[in-house]
Write a structure and sequence with these properties.
The chain is mostly beta strands and 678 residues long. The protein contains 6 helices and 46 strands. A hairpin with a 7-residue loop joins strand 11 (224-230) and strand 12. Helix 1 packs across helix 5 and helix 4 packs antiparallel against helix 5 (119-138). Residues 1-22 have low confidence and may be disordered.
């Protein structure tokens, strides 16, 4: 019994978690009861369990009521009570549990009083007993019956549908509604069949066999398992687990079981699942397995490989020879870490310490010696590279070519050499033909193609590559011819700069500094005018060093904007900063009208007012003279204003106004007006 109580602490979480994840055949409230149904022997069986410790205690005390109604079209719609089921008393249970450990575990869980103090301690004790109840009742049909959580309805008609309710009785004097769970049985013609454990596999280790299987089927999970073993080829099986086997993991996808055995004794294994109805399904398919020797022989030491192109001799030592050593295998590879392929089909004798490879291959210079035991386990020390005297380099690489895209990705390829000891190629790159070339491969490239990436933001228009071939003795060939790869031009040329200009006699002379970029193929002068708006016109192209031009195709009163553009050989363009020029109108513009000046004695200010209704871009310049002095420019006023105010000192003042246009044209000075400030 102590062993079973110990199982509670390890396994109850597993059983509760697994059981709770089974899909019950229920509709309606399920807070306090979970219910399952199955059809067997022409009867409908119900199995339920309280979902928490509080409901469990209530059910243990008051029992459960089972009701039923037929769902056929002509049947009554009312539920009829079939049974009130109570757990056995403690004394009755003791008389029936002899020899059934799990029934006894369930009984003790129900009838053991809680002696703990404090809410948390009481709750923990209740939960521990409840979990023991779930474990025990899931593994014993007798415990299910004695606990009053199963019912068999054998008064059913095949092909009909029935609905059941399961409720925990509330006890005497209780007036509130009982908790009920509705169970629907869809088809009484579908008999229940306990599921079979699926996909049992084995791992054969030294002194053990490890079994693995799925913890679930398409129908349900299992509460526990029994593992059986046969030593007579499957004629008879013996259960090898003392108690129903489960795992401490929380509802795992796979279950593992390890059986300790002696090596090379063949067994057959099968697994049977125990459902939460406390019955067993059919055994799984039996599989064969046995323990095997997995300990390799002692490995060779001090391995060496020496020779020339005609033969390589491999030697080794065995300071510690295993008693089950069967022989040696010699293997060769093109890489230090392998993979290796065997050179001798028949194992070398245990006494052998050397092997001569009469057909060495230059691109497979690495050798390994394996010690093989009678169980075909193999062991080896580190592989070694054959030491070969060779000073002849490979042939010079040829046919190097490459392309570069607009993202700077360079793809190079060349003709793969025919040297029989060729290890690979080293690739070098430089931004100038006479610069130092940088190696871009970290180790010899065993291929004739490579992809490189270079920056496109470079003043150097070309990038240069060369390669060399390397053999297995690190002899390097002469460099290939240098390959020049032109970068796609993505950098516009340096912009030209307009230095100065002058306008005379309706001619505009523009002077600029040409672009300094070396790939510029031409410059061009463009202009827009206030007459044509934003339409740009080519004035002239220059494919030489010309850096000035006089534009005589301009008109008075117009504003022109000039831009000089530089074009490089990739069609990229850089414009100068724009230059705006206004060509003055030689004619005289109308003057202002109705010029007046008044002095306000209260504010001690003079206000000058005029009228001007011409269109255009212009401003006003107010001229002033004091006490008979000549008029001189005094203040500018924007074109949207027609007045000026000031607070002059006492004296007599003359005022006149002139209009100045943006293109340089101007009006005559207006007739002056006189005002006296006091």
């Amino acid at each position: 019994m102590k062993r079973l109580l110990f199982l509670i602490s390890i396994l109850f979480l597993v059983c509760i978690s697994t059981f709770a994840q089974q899909k019950p055949d229920t509709t309606g409230p399920v807070e306090n009861i979970q219910v399952y149904s199955r059809v067997r022997n022409n009867a409908i069986e119900l199995r339920w369990y309280p979902a928490n410790a509080a409901a469990w205690r209530k059910g243990n005390k008051n029992g459960y009521t089972v009701k039923r109604k037929t769902l056929s079209a002509d049947a009554s719609s009312e539920f009829t009570a079939l049974a009130v089921i109570m757990p056995l008393s403690n004394e009755e249970w003791k008389r029936t549990s002899a020899g059934d450990d799990f029934s006894e575990l369930t009984r003790k869980a129900i009838f053991t009083p809680v002696t703990a103090k404090g809410f948390t301690e009481i709750q923990n004790a209740e939960n521990e007993l409840f979990f023991g109840y779930v474990l025990g009742s899931s593994l014993s049909p007798l415990a299910l019956k004695n606990a009053g959580v199963v019912f068999t309805d054998d008064k059913t008609d095949p092909g009909k549908e029935y609905a059941y309710t399961i409720s925990i009785n509330q006890g005497k004097g209780k007036k509130y509604k009982e908790d009920e769970v509705l169970v629907i049985v869809a088809d009484t013609r579908a008999p229940y069949k306990a599921p079979t454990v699926q996909d049992v596999t084995s791992e054969e280790g030294e002194g053990f066999v490890k079994l693995t299987w799925n913890n679930t089927t398409s129908q349900q999970s299992f509460a526990a398992y029994n593992i059986e073993r046969s030593a007579d080829g499957g004629k008879s099986f013996i259960k090898i687990n003392k108690s129903p086997y489960t795992t401490a993991a929380d509802n795992p996808e796979f279950i593992f079981y390890t059986d300790s055995v002696k090596n090379y004794i063949p067994y057959r294994y099968r697994v049977t699942g125990i459902t939460f109805w406390a019955d067993e399904g059919s055994p799984s398919v039996a599989i064969a397995a046995m323990g095997r020797d997995r300990t390799a022989a002692s490995p060779p030491t001090n391995t060496k490989a020496k020779g020339d192109r005609s033969k390589i001799t491999v030697t080794w030592e065995m300071p510690h020879s295993s008693s089950d050593l069967k022989g040696f295998k010699i293997a060769r590879s093109h890489l230090l870490e392998g993979p290796f392929h065997s050179l001798n089909d028949k194992l070398l004798p245990v006494s052998e310490r050397s092997f001569t490879d009469m057909t060495p291959v230059p691109d497979e210079p690495f050798y390994a010696v394996y010690a093989v035991d009678t169980a075909n386990n193999m062991s080896s020390t580190f592989s070694v590279m054959a030491s070969i005297y060779d000073t002849v380099p490979p042939s010079k690489p040829t046919a190097l070519q490459g392309l570069i895209d607009s993202n700077g990705v360079v793809k190079l390829n060349w003709k793969f050499g025919q040297d029989n000891d060729l290890l690979g190629y080293q690739v070098y790159m430089a931004n100038g033909r006479n610069n130092i070339f940088r190696q871009i491969t970290s180790s010899p490239l065993i291929d004739s193609v490579i992809t490189d990436t270079v920056t496109m933001r470079s003043l150097s228009e070309e990038v240069y590559y060369k390669i060399t071939a390397v053999d297995y003795n690190n002899n390097a060939s002469a460099y290939s011819e240098i390959l020049t790869v032109k970068r796609p031009d993505v950098i516009p040329p340096a912009a030209p700069v307009i230095i100065r200009y002058n306008v005379t006699d309706n001619k505009a002379n523009i002077i600029w500094a040409n672009s300094k970029s070396t790939d510029v193929v031409k410059h061009a002068l463009y202009r827009t005018s206030s007459e044509t708006g934003s339409a740009e016109k080519l004035v002239k192209e220059f494919k030489d060093a010309t850096a000035s031009f006089t534009d005589s195709d301009i008109k008075e009163g117009m504003t022109y904007t000039y831009v000089v553009k530089a074009f490089d050989d990739a069609g990229l363009i850089s414009p100068s900063a724009p230059l705006a020029i206004s060509v003055a109108d030689a004619g005289v513009m109308p003057g202002v009208e109705k010029l007046t000046a008044k002095y306000d004695r209260g504010d001690k200010k003079v206000k000058v007012i005029w009228e001007y209704n011409q269109k255009g871009n212009y401003e006003f310049v107010v001229f002033r003279g004091m006490d008979g002095s000549d008029l001189s420019s005094y203040k500018k006023v924007t074109g949207d204003k027609k007045s000026m105010e000031e607070f002059p000192a006492a004296g007599k003042y003359n005022y006149a106004v002139k209009v100045i246009y943006e293109n340089g044209a101007e009006s005559p000075l207006s007739l002056p007006v006189i005002v006296e400030a006091l």
